[in-house]
Design goal:
232 residues; alpha/beta; Rossmann fold; 6-stranded mixed sheet; 10 strands; globular
Length: 232
């Protein structure tokens, strides 16, 4: 298998000026992810897990280190040196991110959020509509909510919608930041089914989970973090 992602000596820290404190989020992180692998990252809250995903997605710029991604369009590219235009392209077509929180444009319905994800990939309107409806059905989002604004959804409904809009694209690399955090058991099983399908179809994934049982049988390798450092 070819290498899709290579993280080399990545460190990220934050300065809290109002408290005059310097916090090290993660230190000297290194890992290599092959195409089609599912890598799990575990650890207590505050151990630095999310900082790793956000540096890969470049929501955060690191203090030091490099992250190389084997892009279908750009070849091996250091994500920390990529242009803003390149990152916009990668987030649109190659790298997906599922967080615990829904970040959607105002006055966009649930159906439109998922449809727009398909349209971004160049699919036709009719195809996007059909794919979105199948995905919303899969997560058992009440049909009466499909044409409503998510601002009034419960936390679990927003999370299911967030997962649906990211997974429907079947990106080359999918980053999962606690995707089952506020879901009931049935919804977790639906997420698991989609993850298994994406993996069979070749999507590479890096995921953060507190639910160790959920990860069993899914992950190819697991990294455990403590105080910003990989310990196992």
């Amino acid at each position: 298998m070819n290498t899709l992602l290579k993280i080399e000596n990545v460190s990220k820290s934050f300065t809290l000026h109002n408290l005059d404190r310097h916090i090290k989020a993660c230190q000297n992180i290194g890992m290599e992810v092959k195409e089609g692998e599912f890598i799990g990252i575990t650890g207590k809250s505050g151990s630095g897990k999310s900082s790793i995903l956000k540096t890969i997605y470049r929501s955060y710029l690191p203090g030091e280190g490099s992250i190389y991604y084997n892009s279908k369009r750009f070849g091996f590219i250091n994500l920390f040196e990529a242009t803003e235009r390149q990152m916009i392209y990668l987030r649109k077509y190659e790298i997906g991110y599922v967080s615990q929180f829904l970040n959607a444009m105002p006055r966009t319905t649930a159906r439109e959020i998922v449809e727009n994800s398909v349209l971004e990939m160049g699919r036709k309107k009719d195809e996007a509509k059909a794919m979105a409806e199948r995905m919303l059905d899969h997560f058992e989002l009440d049909r009466e909510l499909w044409d409503s604004y998510p601002v009034n959804f419960s936390g679990g409904e927003k999370l299911r919608l967030n997962i649906a809009s990211a997974m429907i694209k079947e990106p080359r690399l999918l980053l999962l930041d606690e995707p089952t955090a506020s879901l009931d058991l049935a919804s977790k099983e639906r997420v698991r089914l989609l993850i298994e399908t994406l993996k069979k179809n070749g999507t590479t994934m890096v995921g953060i989970f507190h639910d160790i049982e959920f990860m069993e049988g899914l992950c190819d390798r697991e990294y455990n973090m403590e105080k910003g450092v990989i310990v196992a």
